[in-house]
């Protein structure tokens, strides 16, 4: 009888070891994906930042540069902040340390803040670009992109790259949300309440 219980116990421990290996494998895959998703925005943000920093045009109508408009300055600063955060967070995530509750909350909150920061920068820059392209006849504001086409093309490229970075940050927000809220147990249902 003892021999049979030993076999059952061994099978049970083998099943648990297999489940632990599978969970550890999933954690390793998630860490790899998260590290890659944290590294990808670095290149995107730096590219968008450099395009905007080098963006200026001068012709017979005058000159224009990115720092003439507050929205474009905000875009440059937001891209710089996001690139720095992505680098720092990628290094922290790549280190094989156990995920603690404070670490999970920190990543969750910072990922949310940075997602909204870069989204706001892209949105306000896109609005200014739209006004530069179309103008506003009701306020007698004519289109500026007809005179400064090269400038507007570079702004468009920078904003498009920024919105790709926004997508990366949305995915990061989902990953950090999953990592945080998977640490909590599901709420218990109360069968006595009808």
TrEMBL record:
DNA damage is among the record's keywords: no
Record's subcellular location: Cell membrane
InterPro entries per the UniProt record, alphabetical: CASP/CASPL, CASP_dom
GO cellular component, one term: plasma membrane
A Pfam match: CASP_dom
Keywords, ordered alphabetically: Cell membrane, Membrane, Transmembrane, Transmembrane helix
Annotated Casparian strip membrane protein domain residues: 30-168
Top-rank taxon, per record: Eukaryota
Keyword Cell membrane applies: yes
Membrane topology: Multi-pass membrane protein
Transmembrane segments: 36-54, 74-95, 107-132, 155-175
Complexes and interactors: Homodimer and heterodimers.
Annotated family: Belongs to the Casparian strip membrane proteins (CASP) family.
NCBIfam families found in the cross-reference section: A_tha_TIGR01569 (TIGR01569)
Protein name (record): CASP-like protein
Naturally occurring in which organism (per UniProt): Crotalaria pallida (Smooth rattlebox)
